[in-house]
Specification:
By secondary structure, the protein is α/β, with parallel strands linked by helices. About 50% of the residues lie in helices and about 15% in strands. Manganese (II) ion binds next to helix 7.
């Protein structure tokens, strides 16, 4: 049985990953969370991993004293996440932390020769070139957990990669599908946090409302499947039943369908290539009746067009738009800016900064700081 370390174990993907591991008897070797001491303690007592880590260093002492009666090693900070990612006891590291904080643990896991089940899309957005070249060098697999990328990965099985024309990345369209730019000016935080199909953490829910999530997934797909931007078509599909599709040279299109439940892609990433019963509902197409498709509105949803432009230009641009978005979303959730400003801020990064290369982790961190400082400056002035 595979031995799994879960980073971000108390979040939406993390808790579902724990459930999948429990259901199939996978050994959980380590758990790491941002700051949820209560839930991490509960998970630690239940699954008895070798190691747990808390990213938030201020709460580390509390977790350590709560687990003092166990022999579980308690770590903290980025160092703790990376120590867990590289643990000898792991076969695979499931990374579901939020934001580009996930990049270094991913690189560390790959460096240590561990396969990675990747739910942290910012890892590939900010460090795609570093992550994919290191994975090739170390001969490790990156299994996508994101539902669209898992769908594409599934559609690629048993076919020849060089006979692929393009991929069709489906998008739910979020809560503001069909809105004009004018209408977007008045939307509230509560509306933005209400996603029609998926129940997710706050960051990704806002990203789904701005369509930045699809922009990040566009970039993620480029790196995961080694595609040109022209080979990725985004189609708005409101029901989130078709999780994505691929088109081959003969124009045969293969899609993967299922109920919108992340446990299916999580399970596939951990048990690949096996398909066994999943703790979810089966899909009933007749319950849906109609599936719809539409073009995305790239003029209204500026985050999406900015992300596509960023990966088309390459270099540090994807990292810059991602970090600007992380800062802008944080500011929006703190009621510092309006919804519409997220897209304005993210796309302004493309005009503000000249092209620069990403050759190292330090280059990523430097682009990250540049974008965050720029966004904080805009907001505070
Ligand atoms: Mn997705």
């Amino acid at each position: 049985m595979k031995r799994v370390a879960i980073l971000g174990s108390t979040g939406s993907i993390g808790t579902q990953s724990v459930e999948v591991c429990e259901k199939h008897g996978l050994r959980i070797t380590a758990l790491a969370a941002h700051s949820s001491v209560d839930m991490l303690e509960e998970q630690a007592r239940k699954f008895k991993p070798e190691c747990v880590a808390l990213y938030n260093e201020e709460k580390y002492g509390e977790l350590k004293s709560r687990l003092a009666d166990t022999n579980i090693k308690v770590l903290c900070g980025m160092e703790g996440l990376c120590e867990i990612a590289a643990m000898e006891e792991n076969d695979i590291v499931l990374n579901s932390v939020v934001g580009m904080v996930g990049l270094l643990p991913t690189l560390t896991a790959i460096e240590a020769g561990k396969d990675v089940a990747l739910a942290n899309k910012e890892t590939l957005v900010a460090g795609g070139t570093l992550v994919t070249s290191l994975a090739r060098e170390k001969g490790v697999m990156i299994y996508p957990v994101d539902s669209e990328h898992s769908a594409i990965f599934q559609c690629l099985q048993g076919n020849k990669r060089e006979q692929l024309n393009k991929i069709i990345l489906t998008a739910s369209g979020g809560p503001f599908f069909g809105f004009t730019y004018e209408q977007l000016k008045n939307v509230t935080k509560a509306q933005a946090l209400r996603h029609p199909n998926w129940d997710m953490g706050n960051k990704i829910t806002i990203d789904s409302a701005t369509l930045m999530n699809k922009g990040l997934e566009f970039i993620e797909a480029k790196w995961l499947f080694d595609l040109e931007p022209e080979q990725i078509e985004i189609v708005v599909h409101r029901q989130s039943v078709i999780h994505s599709a691929v088109e081959y040279k003969d124009y045969a299109v293969i899609a993967q369908l299922g109920v919108p439940d992340m446990k299916i892609p999580i399970q596939y990433s951990l048990l690949y290539p096996d398909r066994v019963e999943c703790p979810t509902k089966p899909l009933s197409l007749t319950d849906y009746g109609t599936l719809t498709f539409a073009k995305p509105d790239l003029d209204t949803f500026k985050c999406l067009s900015a992300a596509i432009e960023a990966i088309t230009r390459g270099g540090a641009y994807p990292c810059l738009v991602n970090s600007a978005n992380e800062e802008a979303v944080r500011a929006f959730l703190n009621d510092e800016i309006r919804f519409i400003q997220i897209g304005e801020i993210v796309s302004s990064v493309l005009e503000k900064f000249p092209y620069s290369e990403i050759k190292s982790y330090e280059d990523v961190m430097s682009a990250d700081r540049t974008a965050r400082d720029y966004v904080r400056h805009i907001i505070n002035n």
